[in-house]
Each structure stands twice: as structure tokens, then as C-alpha cells.
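Hi there, hope your week has been kind to you so far. Thanks so much in advance, here it is.
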Amino acid sequence: MAHVELSWTESPPSAMPRIPERRSVHMWSATVDGAHEPCMVIDDLAVIAAASMPACRLLGFSGPNEAIGQCLFDHALPLLDFTSDGAPLSSEELQRIPPVLALSSGLLARGVLRVQSRNEIITMDAVSTPLHEFERVVGSLTFFSVV
């Protein structure tokens, strides 16, 4: 599997005020909207800010409009554990999925997820990178790959 590192850097002018707007999240969301790869952006509250159409198909959404605004902590993704019963992930387990772990740690996170997508269970690899704004983590960008 290829290793890809992404960054989006833009040095703000020193006179630029620190506004609460999450420009990094918005810039990456615009990129994800047109992506041909399964990927999504969440903000610092774990709310889906953008999802590519391939990601929506994998995650069981009809399209980006259905996904955007959904909070991962509200079980927006039908994530399952790896037991034979395939039970939904607990709130504690949701804290450790790559998109959320990248938020809390500020580091690259990777892991395997199981998702109930329509009538099938899909196992996928998820790689997440934190998105920063003025040295603060304001979201994460995740790429998915079916295993």
C-alpha cells in the first residue's frame, strides 16, 4: 500500500486576525467534494463537513448531502465491532476510530473499520490526518480503502 502524506500550508500575514472560521476544514472540504477516492473531512466536533461520493457509497449514505452535518458520536456511521455478532461500536470505542483519534491526538491515525453498508458488511482501512489552523487541530481528513 502506498504511503501518502498530505499537507495544506498557508502562512497567514502577521497582521491577519485570528478568526474562529475553520479555513483548513473548508479548504479540504472543497477538495473532498470532487474527489474520486473515498474520503471525508470532519470538524473538531466530529461532525462530517464533507464526504466524497465514493465514501458515501462505502459508508451507506445516498450522497454528500445526507452525510454532511452528521456527528460521528451520534452513530452517524453504522460502525460495527469485530465480534461474530457485529455489534455497533460503543461510545468509548468511537473515540478510538482513526478520524476521531487524529482529532484528539493531533497525529496521523490508522485503523481497520467494519461498516454495515446497505445489506453487506464492509471492512476498510482508514488513514486520518489532523487538520490544523493556527497550531490548533480543527478537523481531520480520512481516506478509506476496502480491505
About this structure: Helices lie at 23-33, 53-59, 64-67, 91-94, 98-105.
